[in-house]
Amino acid sequence: MNNIENDTTRKFAEGMWKLIMARGVVLFFVGLILLLFPTATLTTLIFIMGVYWLIEGIATMYNTIQRRNLYNYWWWGFVTGGLGILAGVIVLAKPFSTTVLTTSFLIIFLGVIALLNGISGIVTAIRLNKLQQGGRSGMWRGIFSLILGILLISSPFSSALVFIKIIGSFSLFAGLITIALALRVKKRAKEFEEQNTF
Protein backbone atom coordinates (compact mmCIF):
# COMPACT_ATOMS: atom_id res chain seq x y z
CA MET A 1 0.00 0.00 0.00
CA ASN A 2 1.57 3.38 -1.01
CA ASN A 3 1.61 6.60 1.07
CA ILE A 4 -1.41 8.13 -0.73
CA GLU A 5 -3.54 5.04 -0.07
CA ASN A 6 -2.30 4.97 3.56
CA ASP A 7 -3.21 8.64 4.04
CA THR A 8 -6.69 8.14 2.50
CA THR A 9 -7.36 5.12 4.71
CA ARG A 10 -6.14 7.02 7.79
CA LYS A 11 -8.40 10.01 7.09
CA PHE A 12 -11.36 7.71 6.47
CA ALA A 13 -10.70 5.81 9.73
CA GLU A 14 -10.28 9.07 11.68
CA GLY A 15 -13.64 10.32 10.43
CA MET A 16 -15.41 7.00 10.89
CA TRP A 17 -14.42 6.12 14.45
CA LYS A 18 -16.07 9.27 15.86
CA LEU A 19 -19.32 8.52 14.02
CA ILE A 20 -19.28 4.88 15.16
CA MET A 21 -18.50 5.98 18.73
CA ALA A 22 -21.42 8.47 18.70
CA ARG A 23 -23.79 5.73 17.54
CA GLY A 24 -22.49 3.35 20.20
CA VAL A 25 -22.89 5.92 22.99
CA VAL A 26 -26.45 6.77 21.85
CA LEU A 27 -27.41 3.06 21.71
CA PHE A 28 -25.86 2.48 25.14
CA PHE A 29 -27.71 5.36 26.82
CA VAL A 30 -31.01 4.53 25.09
CA GLY A 31 -30.66 0.97 26.41
CA LEU A 32 -29.82 2.27 29.88
CA ILE A 33 -32.88 4.57 29.93
CA LEU A 34 -35.16 1.76 28.72
CA LEU A 35 -33.84 -0.60 31.42
CA LEU A 36 -33.88 1.90 34.29
CA PHE A 37 -37.14 3.72 33.46
CA PRO A 38 -39.42 1.37 31.47
CA THR A 39 -42.67 2.89 32.82
CA ALA A 40 -41.47 6.45 32.22
CA THR A 41 -40.44 5.46 28.66
CA LEU A 42 -43.93 4.13 27.94
CA THR A 43 -45.50 7.27 29.43
CA THR A 44 -43.22 9.49 27.31
CA LEU A 45 -44.12 7.60 24.10
CA ILE A 46 -47.86 7.87 24.82
CA PHE A 47 -47.39 11.56 25.74
CA ILE A 48 -45.73 12.19 22.33
CA MET A 49 -48.66 10.39 20.67
CA GLY A 50 -51.05 12.64 22.62
CA VAL A 51 -49.28 15.78 21.37
CA TYR A 52 -49.42 14.40 17.81
CA TRP A 53 -53.16 13.59 18.07
CA LEU A 54 -53.89 17.08 19.44
CA ILE A 55 -51.97 18.89 16.67
CA GLU A 56 -53.39 16.58 13.99
CA GLY A 57 -56.93 17.10 15.34
CA ILE A 58 -56.60 20.90 15.36
CA ALA A 59 -55.11 20.87 11.84
CA THR A 60 -57.89 18.58 10.53
CA MET A 61 -60.60 20.71 12.17
CA TYR A 62 -59.12 23.95 10.78
CA ASN A 63 -58.73 22.43 7.31
CA THR A 64 -62.32 21.17 7.37
CA ILE A 65 -63.74 24.57 8.40
CA GLN A 66 -61.71 26.30 5.65
CA ARG A 67 -62.95 23.91 2.93
CA ARG A 68 -66.43 22.99 4.18
CA ASN A 69 -68.10 24.50 1.07
CA LEU A 70 -66.06 22.28 -1.28
CA TYR A 71 -67.10 18.88 0.08
CA ASN A 72 -70.46 17.26 0.81
CA TYR A 73 -69.02 15.15 3.64
CA TRP A 74 -67.14 17.98 5.36
CA TRP A 75 -68.65 16.93 8.72
CA TRP A 76 -66.54 13.74 8.65
CA GLY A 77 -63.33 15.80 8.91
CA PHE A 78 -64.96 17.73 11.74
CA VAL A 79 -65.70 14.48 13.61
CA THR A 80 -62.19 13.00 13.09
CA GLY A 81 -60.56 16.31 14.04
CA GLY A 82 -62.69 16.49 17.17
CA LEU A 83 -61.78 12.91 18.14
CA GLY A 84 -58.09 13.71 17.62
CA ILE A 85 -58.34 16.77 19.87
CA LEU A 86 -60.27 14.80 22.50
CA ALA A 87 -57.70 11.94 22.46
CA GLY A 88 -54.82 14.44 22.71
CA VAL A 89 -56.41 16.32 25.63
CA ILE A 90 -57.15 13.06 27.52
CA VAL A 91 -53.57 11.80 27.06
CA LEU A 92 -52.01 15.13 28.07
CA ALA A 93 -54.32 15.50 31.08
CA LYS A 94 -53.66 11.98 32.46
CA PRO A 95 -50.55 10.59 30.74
CA PHE A 96 -49.88 7.71 33.17
CA SER A 97 -53.48 6.39 33.26
CA THR A 98 -53.66 6.67 29.47
CA THR A 99 -50.33 4.86 29.13
CA VAL A 100 -51.68 1.88 31.10
CA LEU A 101 -54.93 1.78 29.08
CA THR A 102 -53.38 2.37 25.62
CA THR A 103 -50.48 -0.02 26.22
CA SER A 104 -52.81 -2.66 27.64
CA PHE A 105 -55.08 -2.38 24.59
CA LEU A 106 -52.17 -2.74 22.14
CA ILE A 107 -50.66 -5.68 24.01
CA ILE A 108 -54.06 -7.41 24.28
CA PHE A 109 -54.48 -6.91 20.52
CA LEU A 110 -51.06 -8.51 19.90
CA GLY A 111 -51.97 -11.28 22.36
CA VAL A 112 -55.20 -12.07 20.46
CA ILE A 113 -53.22 -12.25 17.19
CA ALA A 114 -50.65 -14.58 18.82
CA LEU A 115 -53.48 -16.70 20.25
CA LEU A 116 -55.20 -17.04 16.86
CA ASN A 117 -51.86 -17.83 15.16
CA GLY A 118 -51.17 -20.47 17.81
CA ILE A 119 -54.55 -22.16 17.38
CA SER A 120 -54.21 -22.03 13.59
CA GLY A 121 -50.66 -23.44 13.78
CA ILE A 122 -51.71 -26.33 16.04
CA VAL A 123 -54.71 -27.22 13.83
CA THR A 124 -52.50 -27.12 10.71
CA ALA A 125 -49.84 -29.28 12.44
CA ILE A 126 -52.46 -31.89 13.44
CA ARG A 127 -53.72 -32.06 9.84
CA LEU A 128 -50.15 -32.41 8.52
CA ASN A 129 -49.48 -35.23 11.02
CA LYS A 130 -52.57 -37.07 9.76
CA LEU A 131 -51.18 -36.77 6.24
CA GLN A 132 -47.77 -37.93 7.55
CA GLN A 133 -46.15 -34.72 6.27
CA GLY A 134 -44.29 -33.94 9.53
CA GLY A 135 -46.09 -31.16 11.36
CA ARG A 136 -44.09 -31.46 14.60
CA SER A 137 -42.18 -28.17 14.20
CA GLY A 138 -45.43 -26.41 13.31
CA MET A 139 -47.01 -27.89 16.43
CA TRP A 140 -44.26 -26.44 18.65
CA ARG A 141 -44.52 -23.04 16.95
CA GLY A 142 -48.28 -23.11 17.49
CA ILE A 143 -47.92 -24.03 21.18
CA PHE A 144 -45.31 -21.27 21.70
CA SER A 145 -47.58 -18.72 19.99
CA LEU A 146 -50.54 -19.89 22.07
CA ILE A 147 -48.60 -19.53 25.36
CA LEU A 148 -47.30 -16.12 24.28
CA GLY A 149 -50.85 -14.98 23.48
CA ILE A 150 -52.14 -16.15 26.88
CA LEU A 151 -49.28 -14.37 28.70
CA LEU A 152 -49.83 -11.12 26.77
CA ILE A 153 -53.59 -11.13 27.39
CA SER A 154 -53.32 -12.11 31.09
CA SER A 155 -50.89 -9.28 32.03
CA PRO A 156 -50.67 -6.75 29.17
CA PHE A 157 -48.99 -3.86 31.00
CA SER A 158 -46.35 -6.12 32.61
CA SER A 159 -45.72 -7.71 29.18
CA ALA A 160 -45.14 -4.26 27.68
CA LEU A 161 -42.61 -3.42 30.40
CA VAL A 162 -40.81 -6.76 29.83
CA PHE A 163 -40.76 -6.02 26.07
CA ILE A 164 -39.21 -2.58 26.71
CA LYS A 165 -36.59 -4.17 28.99
CA ILE A 166 -35.70 -6.71 26.27
CA ILE A 167 -35.28 -3.87 23.74
CA GLY A 168 -33.21 -1.99 26.34
CA SER A 169 -30.91 -4.99 26.88
CA PHE A 170 -30.35 -5.40 23.13
CA SER A 171 -29.69 -1.66 22.76
CA LEU A 172 -27.22 -1.67 25.66
CA PHE A 173 -25.38 -4.71 24.27
CA ALA A 174 -25.32 -3.25 20.72
CA GLY A 175 -24.00 0.04 22.16
CA LEU A 176 -21.10 -1.70 23.92
CA ILE A 177 -20.19 -3.67 20.77
CA THR A 178 -20.35 -0.47 18.65
CA ILE A 179 -18.14 1.43 21.15
CA ALA A 180 -15.61 -1.44 21.06
CA LEU A 181 -15.64 -1.29 17.24
CA ALA A 182 -15.09 2.50 17.34
CA LEU A 183 -12.05 2.06 19.60
CA ARG A 184 -10.64 -0.56 17.23
CA VAL A 185 -11.07 1.79 14.24
CA LYS A 186 -9.42 4.61 16.25
CA LYS A 187 -6.47 2.33 17.05
CA ARG A 188 -6.14 1.42 13.37
CA ALA A 189 -6.18 5.13 12.42
CA LYS A 190 -3.30 5.77 14.87
CA GLU A 191 -1.35 2.85 13.37
CA PHE A 192 -1.72 4.37 9.88
CA GLU A 193 -0.62 7.75 11.24
CA GLU A 194 2.50 6.22 12.82
CA GLN A 195 3.31 4.38 9.53
CA ASN A 196 3.11 7.67 7.62
CA THR A 197 5.30 9.48 10.18
CA PHE A 198 8.29 7.16 9.57
Automatic annotation (TrEMBL):
Keywords linked to the UniProt accession: Membrane, Transmembrane, Transmembrane helix
Source species, domain of life: Bacteria
Keyword Chloroplast annotated: no
InterPro entries membership: Acid_resist_chaperone_HdeD, DUF308_memb
A Gene Ontology cellular-component term: plasma membrane
Residues that span the membrane, as ranges: 20-38, 44-62, 74-93, 105-126, 138-157, 163-183
Protein name (Swiss-Prot/TrEMBL): DUF308 domain-containing protein
